[in-house]
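User: Show me an example of a complex going from sequences to structure tokens.

Assistant: Sure. Here are the input components:
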Amino acid sequence: MTKPSQYKVIGTRPIRHDGVDKVTGRAVYGADVQLPGLVHGKMLRSSHAHARIKSIDTTSAEKLPGVFAVVTGADLPCLAGKMANLGEGAINLAHLSQNCLADTKVLYKGHAVAAVAAISPHVAEEAVKLIRVEYEPLPPVMELLAAMQPDAQLLHDDVFTNRLGEKSARPSNVSQHIHLEQGEVDQAFAKADLVIEREFRTASVHQGYIEPHVSIAFWNADGHVTIWTSTQGAFTVRQQTAELFEIPVSRITVIPTEIGGGFGGKIPVYLEPVAAALSRKCGRPVKMTMQRDEDFQGTGPTPGSVVRVKLGATQDGKLVAGQAWLAYDAGAFPGGMIGPGCMCVFSCYEIPNARVDGFDVLCNKPKTAAYRAPGATQAAFACESVIDELAEKLGIDPIDFRLKNAAKEGTRRPDGEVYRRIGIIETLQAVKQSEHYRSKTSGPNVGRGVAAGFWFNVGLKSSAAANVNNDGTVTLIEGSTDIGGTRTSVAMQLAETLGIAAEDVQPHVGDTDSVGYTDVTGGSRVTNATGKAAYQVGLDIKQQMAARAAIVFECKPEQVAVEGGVYRHQGQALTFKELAGKLPHIGEPVVGRATVDAGGATNGFGVHVVDLDVDRETGKVTILRYTAAQDVGTAIHPSYVEGQMQGGAVQGIGWALNEEYVFNERGEMLNASFLDYRMPTALDVPMIETMIVEVPNPEHPYGVRGVGETPIVPPPAALANAIYRATGVRMRELPMSPPKLWKAISRSAPPA
Amino acid sequence: MKDFEYSAAATIDEAVSLLARWGDRAKVLTGGTDLIVQLREGQREADMVIDVKKIPQLMESSYSREKGWRLGAAVPCHRIYEHAEVADAYPGLADAARIIGGWQIQSRASIGGNLCNASPAADSIPILIAYHATCRIAGPNGERTVPVAQFCVGPGRNQLARGEILVSLDFPPSLPRSSGAYLRFIPRNEMDIAVVGVGSWVQLNARGDAIEAARIGLGAVAPTPLVAEQASLWLCGKPANDDTFAQAGELARLVARPISDKRGPAEYRTHLVGVLTKRTLAIATKRARET
């Protein structure tokens, strides 16, 4: 894919600006924050998956020497019936509050019930053991379909089913029923030559970020709250905390620390309000750090699911009708990932007649959170498996089948979105022509699978500002916490706009008092939207610099021509750096600023190919070769684009093969550690090969599309399709772990 | 985690007298890769932690072709596979030592500690059993020896009495045309606890085509590691081929009585005993022919 570039900075691979600090251990993460008088908080977590809290007695804990404060749900304001929009639709604030500290019920094992602040973490742990909670246990609701039954044990008596804006008569564990429809679905199925309908299940999985949640809060005597935290969005932490305490946002400053991975799991608040409540009580800064088992049991996994997909095609391989039924567990509170699941299930294809029903279902598991393309992977596992089966039955190559039906500019998704210029066809063609796809597989238990995947790319609000220094460098302050190398990809867009080197831009992520409002780092939006802000900052600076050049050139600003970072007028020329050096003597300092509410949400499509070998005796899968291709719009920093594609693919492989929450009948998670929650290690995956496809996004000045999330979507289906080719067994349940695959193989007929 | 005392014993006598004095409230520290985590997570409690790495006998590894091998109880794993003669004579134990954690763990963790921790899934124990290793134990009343196969009495429990300490593991000499192998099944390729572990040892005849003696140890299929006695005895005199190994696997399955847990269902574990027995016998036989 090499072609002469129109850019000087974009498409190059400079060393990331935060690289040295990270590899030398100097970068400041949440756990590194030390403050005078700091004390340590620990949470008491529910030992029951479902119970009423009859009483909490904190007397003994408070009396333990070294304990400064104990808080329970009673220390947070009662927010019953209050709603707020925190950027992802309206949510019930009482639920948010109850998830931080339980109120009258505990709704999952690991649900926070009380917290202690003490002189050391060990004293805090001992004090937590002294808190006496009297529970009235209730039957846990763990199984998705059982939770949907009309006579199921209810989690909440104030949650009703919202179906197209109508509220159900009785409370229900089904908080939402989404229905999407286009065309004449039943008639289209009747006309199809081949109809296949299958049911799929997936387990709850966790983001597995390497850095546990950590927050430090200091509630000053003047009422101002400062929070240092590992988060994907400083401003959403500020707003969530403000809403929970019913205080104005201006009374809270959130300082985002470096972040050791988020993947969607560091958007909700968990520790921040509790640390703040403890600090308010004891007057000292309070640090709270989760242990790994707390991350698994007390923070959001992404939903387990049951998905039924039915597709109809003509004999020549044209999809004519689709129907999907999706139930996702939301965990203990409403608001799971069912919405995007419904929007994504058929998103790669042109299916003129389609119907989608989706259900958000409560159960006694931790409240779900976003995880890289939230909701899309479960849906794609189902859809892409059925697509593969259709292609096989029709005798069409799986890539050709997808090419025949791929979405394109003008295709309307069942949720109403009409695509602008997208690149799934180019991505499929790139895979079809690749050396990998054209190579032959060999071996009796070796199979190749392919699958496509889709994710949105949101815009939302971003702010940035930059100061021109008189040594010719530019200091950039932006509000997007950096979870994927975005400081560099944003800085590179500013450098490109100004015609200077990437190294001459020094990017910084600001706190909520020092940068304009910026939405969360999520939805694959930062390189797109904050990048757009950086571009506009560049235009602003360019204009100001041209005005300063005009002073030197003794002409009018509009007479200054700017090209490639050189300012010219009638034979006079100054580079950006030379001009910056003159700034102390020519007019006002130069500060560029921009804010965007980026529209132009575009879409990322990926196609993955995997070759794998199955040990038929043990059911263990060995991945032999893996290629991820994706339309990335424009690759600003190709190394980070490749890294996103590889990282997403590996997380998808883990989801496919071994990752799952294992619960017992009491609703207790049995494998809340990295030892037994089996994410892939470096020895479990080969080098993931990448193919960057660039179909520029017409809505972005540099053609950027979001990259980070799409790559997690295709792997489970790609692996399932490869396992079928290797063994003749169609796996329709995740994870496709060795015991399950062995069982399926031993049930099937021996190979011919 | 609560506070505890720490003492680094310099001699066996000192360790024994500390253990006799503190009883159950003392815990022995070798590499600490199990103990420190267990104390930190509240799975075990200690008022006294006795570090035994300063006791020379526990850090000694002495091998001779004639006498066999004495492995001090606190010798870290890396000294097994990095000791060419030992790794050559007891390759099955080197198999286990190489997969107990990563190299950081192997720089600290000891086979003696792995045995005393008495996990049913411990990687070293099935192959120690297969090699007929014995435990040399020191206590207030002097020394005694116990076969490894009898050392564990339950999950996390061993037969050391108050005041007793494991000093070394003693291996019989490795004879020509004999060898061993250890395999565990894990869903990933690293960082995992055995779903099932099998260690096999075989002694071949002079022609190398039949088995004269064999011994199979099983892990993670019962509250303690097991000897697959019937399968081991049945192998004597059988031709050393794939059919034999598969049949021995079927016999080994009969003694497995696993539970279903987060690491795998019982039915699957029993099945894996057959697969791994077959595979370890094949590797051990191949190695025996190369000796």
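The lines above are the inputs; the final block is the predicted structure for all two components together. The radius of gyration of chain A is 27 Å.
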